[in-house]
């Protein structure tokens, strides 16, 4: 198939540091190319890909100090996609909202993967207006807040199997927190869990400007108060295998409807179990008692730390290999692409979600 991948311009593809959406766009793109498809990636010029790259801006917008408003750059992106749309069998968007008013006139099948939270009230009128857009959710739970829309499927994220090597005998005796410092990610819970369990905690996380006050007033004082808490800053892809692989467990103490939680499967790939709070996609991602533990409060999380020796790290990695590879992810996407482009479909099965039915690709 001739497939266009349309990425956000905030980060490069793949991102240099933090950036879950752009990282997934990269994994999809590279796996599609590996499987022999003709793929064109619309992204920032500092992106790296084996597909044809259409550079829309010179650098990732987050890294350009001259950029104050990303919207004009994304409108330029959409104009470039529109100009070349007839070249493709399908256009796969990862830019959330901005393309909705335009793509009805493109004359080419489109599908949009929604990577963010959907429980914000401002989204309701948008999806009522553009309810015919084919959409992909990254977990079933992500769908709950939306009115009836045109769900094309649910596709859980996947990673290249050789991206993160498993560590079956970790060298460290610490718990890990990886991601972003923000109130909904609850690093304060991670600190409380580690302190109560008598464990060292390493925090590798990005601090956005919007969350600087939360860091200054809540998290930084906690880090200073506990000598076994170490903040190591934002880390890149090359550092994740060592950081996660040598941890006894990843702490994922979220307090929001997490659409997916990429770090959970990154930990799985490293053979590291996850202790996660029961929010959002967590019950869909974590196989309880195999890939980790699902808990409802700090006390249960502390108890789960004491149960880590009962988990076999090889089985954690086996869960990843069975459920969360890039090959499985792309197989699911191709099922959707072929259906929307009028190609012979692969087998799908009706799956009931709430009060509606959605035809979801069978997950490997």
Automatic annotation (TrEMBL):
Keywords: Transferase. Gene3D superfamilies: Glycogen Phosphorylase B. InterPro entries: Glyco_trans_1 (IPR001296), Glyco_trans_4-like_N (IPR028098). Residues 169-311 form the Glycosyl transferase family domain. SUPFAM superfamilies: UDP-Glycosyltransferase/glycogen phosphorylase. CDD domains: GT4_AviGT4-like. Residues 18-125 form the Glycosyltransferase subfamily 4-like N-terminal domain. GO terms for molecular function: glycosyltransferase activity. This is Glycosyltransferase family 4 protein.
């Amino acid at each position: 198939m001739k497939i266009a991948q349309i990425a956000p311009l905030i980060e490069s593809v793949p991102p240099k540091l933090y950036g879950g959406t752009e990282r997934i766009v990269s994994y999809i793109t590279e796996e599609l190319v590996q499987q022999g498809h003709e793929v064109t990636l619309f992204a920032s010029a500092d992106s790296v890909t084996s597909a044809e790259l259409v550079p829309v801006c010179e650098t990732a917008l987050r890294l350009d100090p001259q950029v104050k408003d990303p919207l004009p750059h994304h409108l330029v992106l959409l104009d470039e996609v529109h100009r070349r749309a007839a070249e493709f069998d399908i256009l796969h968007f990862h830019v959330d909202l901005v393309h909705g008013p335009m793509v009805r006139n493109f004359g080419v099948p489109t599908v949009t993967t929604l990577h963010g939270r959907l429980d914000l009230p401002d989204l309701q009128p948008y999806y009522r207006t553009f309810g015919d857009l084919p959409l992909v959710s990254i977990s079933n739970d992500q769908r709950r807040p939306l009115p009836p829309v045109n769900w094309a499927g649910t596709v859980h994220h996947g990673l290249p199997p050789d991206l993160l090597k498993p560590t079956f005998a970790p060298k460290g005796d610490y718990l890990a927190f990886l991601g972003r410092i923000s109130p909904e990610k609850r690093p304060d819970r991670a600190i409380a869990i580690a302190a109560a369990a008598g464990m060292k905690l390493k925090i590798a996380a990005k601090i956005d400007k919007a969350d600087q006050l939360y860091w200054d007033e809540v998290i930084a004082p906690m880090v200073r108060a506990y000598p076994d808490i170490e903040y190591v800053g934002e880390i890149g892809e090359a550092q994740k295998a060592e950081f996660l692989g040598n941890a006894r467990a990843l702490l994922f103490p979220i307090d929001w409807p997490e659409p997916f939680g990429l770090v959970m499967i990154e930990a799985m790939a490293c053979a590291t179990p996850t202790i996660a709070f029961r929010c959002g996609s967590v019950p869909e991602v974590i196989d309880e008692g195999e890939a980790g533990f699902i808990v409802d409060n700090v006390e249960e999380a502390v108890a789960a730390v004491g149960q880590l020796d009962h988990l076999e790290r090889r089985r954690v990695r086996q869960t990843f290999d069975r459920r969360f590879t890039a090959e499985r992810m792309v197989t699911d996407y191709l099922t959707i692409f072929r259906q929307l482009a009028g190609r012979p479909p692969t087998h799908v099965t009706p799956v009931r979600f709430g009060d509606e039915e959605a035809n979801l690709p069978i997950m490997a």
